[in-house]
Amino acid sequence: MAGVGLSYNQYIWNSTMNPAAGMLRHVVGLGTRAVNRVEGDYPRIIALDEPLLKPYSGIEDARKFSQRKFDVLNTARNELETIDMAEFFRDTGRVNLSYVGLRDAETEERMRERGASDAESWLVNFDEFLQKTSFVRDMEMILRVLEETYRNPVDIEYTLNFTGEGSYRINLLQCRPQQVKWYREPVSMPDIVAGDRVFFRSSGNFVGGNISLDLKRIIYVDPEGYSGLSVTDKHAVARIMGRLNRTIENRQENPVMLIGPGRWGTTTPSLGVPVNYSEIHSVSVIVEIAFMRDGLVPEISYGTHFFQDLVENDTYYVAIQPEKERVVFNPALLSAYPDIAPALIPEESRFQEIVHVYETDFELRLIADIARQELLCYAHGE
Predict the structure, then answer these.
(1) What pLDDT, in 10s, does the model give residues 253-308?
(2) Is residue 183 a part of any domain in this protein?
(3) End-to-end CA distance of the chain
């Protein structure tokens, strides 16, 4: 096993969690899948003060947001190799399998109905390992000592190897100061906001701590229109983002929100807009919308080089899942503001129903309270 540890958890998704308790991204195999974002594959996110609390609910989400492959070093061939988790679970000599995951009885039953009488299906979650060992306490101690020594939150990489029946050794591979730019002053959420003034509202699914930011402009890619484009045109939309990015002057004084379907920066255009970070680096807020018709579910961009760019550039991140309870998404509100896209990109008129640039002129406010896990973007009218 291996992973990444942060002594300050910027990614809390529940009001009971304490950011100062720290968090881990934990995987089977080498730590490459904890450090890097891999399409369709997920590390286990462990909040050290609530280690069994997951940022999703239900068996379907558990199946979706779990590790499917693991990385190893093939010493015979001297190369990195990626192996299916199913192979790991077939090799019972590696480790106590219940420490890694649990049997998926429902999936096994479906497999038996199809004739696979000896079928096994596992879900990686590490729950029993977290419950029955001192691993969480060990990692809390390691992160606390390092933070006190550095006098700053820390970012570590580690490995864990089993040495005997139930015992293990943790090796610290790397430690560096954690960039915690997003801890901000307390904010005061408005008590009442009329429904027709709300652009979006959500509980959780944002990264960046407390914020109160009045927005100069909204760059909006219409999810439904984008989904109907060819692959070539989806790449063309990504390049348009780069040109609009270059029109942003002084991002501190003129904050711009970028909002669109699925994952910004994906390499798969059907999953989102395939931009490079350099094409969106001037925006202040990035928002991903889950466009449910195509099954797009945005994910918090934990631990990737792209995400590190967001951290270094002090860019706020939001994921909006309109189908979820307590989530409001009202794009019709934007029609109250002038769309200046035709003036900025007159040669791209064929995308005028898909790419919009709304001049909100600081009348839209994004406000979030990390402790209460509340997020609101609304027309404040001040």
Answers:
(1) 999 999 999 888 888 888 889 998 889 999 999 999 887 554 444 444 433 446 55
(2) no
(3) 53
Which residues neighbour 24 within 8 Å (Cβ) at sequence distance 6 or greater?
3, 4, 5, 6, 44, 45, 46, 48, 139
Contact partners, residue 373, CB within 8 Å, separation at least 6: 12, 13, 14, 15, 203, 204
* Beta-carbon count within 10 A of 329 CB: 21
- The tally of CA atoms less than 13 A away on the side-chain side of residue 98 is 5
- Beta carbons of 360 and 217 less than 8 angstroms apart: yes
Do 261 and 152 lie in a common domain? no
Q: Record the tokens describing residue 5, joined without a space.
A: 């540890």
CA 289 to CA 297: how far, in whole Å? 8
Token pair recorded at residue 100:
């890694």
Same domain, 152 and 202: no
User: What CA dihedral angle connects 309, 310, 312 and 315, to 10 degrees?
Assistant: 150
Residue 254 and residue 129 share a domain: no
Alpha helix positions (H), 188-230: 223-227
Which is more confidently placed, 360 or 112? 360
- CA dist 66 and 47 (Å) reads 16
Number of domains in the chain: 2
In 3D space, the residue among 204, 177, 192, 147 whose CA is nearest the CA of residue 371 turns out to be 204
Cα(294)–Cα(282) distance, integer angstroms: 29
Q: Is the pTM of this model over 0.70?
A: no
Q: Give the C-alpha distances (Å, rounded to integers) separating 262 from 61, 293, 324.
A: 17, 11, 15
Q: How far is CA 120 from the centre of its chain?
A: 30
Residues 281 and 239 in one domain: yes
Strand intervals (E) in the chain:
2-6, 23-27, 44-47, 69-74, 79-84, 101-103, 122-124, 154-164, 167-177, 198-203, 206-207, 211-221, 256-261, 285-289, 316-320, 328-329, 355-369, 374-379
